[in-house]
Structure formats: structure tokens, C-alpha cells
Amino acid sequence: MNLYLDVLGKRPDGYHEIVGLFQTIHLHDLMWVKLLDRGFFLEGNVTLPENNTLKKAYDVFREKTGYDFGLAVRLEKRIPMGSGLGGGSSNAATLLKFLGEKFKVSLGDLKEIASCVGSDVPFFLIGGTALVRGRGEIVEKVQDITGYSVVLFVPPFGSSTAEMYEKITPELYGKGPGKVRELLEAYLNKDYDTIRTLSYNVFEKVFLREHEEIVSKLEDFGKGAIVRMLTGSGSAFFAVYPEGKGEHPFVGGVQIGSEELHQGHT
Description:
Blueprint: E1 2-10, E2 16-25, E3 29-36, E4 40-44, H1 53-65, E5 70-76, H2 87-103, H3 107-117, H4 121-126, E6 129-134, E7 138-141, E8 148-153, H5 161-166, H6 180-188, H7 192-198, E9 200-201, H8 203-210, E10 227-230, E11 237-242, E12 248-251, E13 260-263
Helix pairs in contact: 1-2, 1-3, 2-3, 6-7
């Protein structure tokens, strides 16, 4: 989830330079993994595209490490797809962390692998609270924000990250308050006024302009909240409350069990 997200410009490699304050919450998918001799098999409660992030994580991990193995993966999606809540990225990150533990691959090497899978994947290797820069691969772990929870509003449609980035034109670059560390301190100090002042998502106005039909549905959402915002490039909105008044508490990391992988605290 993005407590702050600004686009600073377009990079020579075609990606966009971002700055953000990212936070994981309790909402997560479930995943079960079994190592095999060969092949990749994926089943679940939703139909994923052939080029899904789990298959990409498997392929990149094998390519970068040289390990030859197969996987059987069963995925139960709880994070809405196309919502901007990082479900696909967190799935990939948790699989990489699982494989890293099985094959004794260092976290540093996993971060490099993760950055080849997707821009948000390195953040989800760590979870909790982090300042994120570059195209998403520069992750600075900071003191975890605690004492908050969120309520989510998820429209009945998804949002394409690639298409939304195409709509971020140069006049929108770097328009956020630009004081991400001050926003972090405000959350840590329960300074609600400053949180309201510094919270920002460059995609929000663009998203609402593209989807005017949901503006009226948002009128009552987040009443009494500290702040209400779009997350990622959409389509979900979140409202932040003091802990106990929301459905999904802020959490500080990714949990991995030996059989059941508690996936993607986003």
C-alpha cells in the first residue's frame, strides 16, 4: 500500500523514477508450494495470465542461480487483482523468499533477482514500512509504522499499471509535497494534521478523471478517517484510521511457514 507515491520523471531505460512511502497491511493471499524435479504447475481460485509473476519469479530465480528444479504452486487469492495493492508482486516476493531459504540464497542476491521480476517485488521481500526510490528497486527499510489500520474500497474493475503510467505526463512530475521523511515522522508521532498535509498519490486525480462513475460512490467512504487515498495506480482506495477502527492493521513483514506461505502483506 502506498502512503505516498510521486513520479519524478522518465528514466533512460523506459521506467519511471518514483519516490514513495510503502506499507504492508494484514490483507494477504495464501500459497502452498512443493518442490519437484522439473516443471512448473500452478493452480488456484482465479485464472492468472500465462506470464504471471509467480512463473516469472520461478524462471528468473533458476536463471540467476543456476539451480534446476520444478515447482507445484497452489494459490488462494484474497488480494483483489488489478487493485494496486501489490498482490502479484507480493506473491512473487514470498515465493522468492521461500526459494532463497530452501537454496541458501542471500537476501542481497534475492533483491537483485526480485528487481528483474518486477519493480515492486524488492519491497515485498522485506515488508513493513519502507522508503522506496528508483523504479522501485531501491528500498530503504525504516522504523515500522504501528497503531493504524485501514478500510478498503475496491471498485468492481481493475486498473492497468502500464496504462496509468502512460497517462502521467511531464507536467505531473514531482508535484507532491516532497517531504516523505516528514510524512513518516508524522505517522510515527500520530501527527494526523501533518499526515493529511503530506499524503500524496500522483495517480489519484488521473484515475478519478478516467473513472468519474465511482466519484459518487466515494462520497461516504473514509468519513472520519485520518486520510483517504488511492493506492498504487488503482483501482483500490484506502482510508487510514487509528488501529481498531479499520479492517486491516499495518504489519511489519512477510510471514513464511514451512508449508503454508502467508502471502503478500500489502
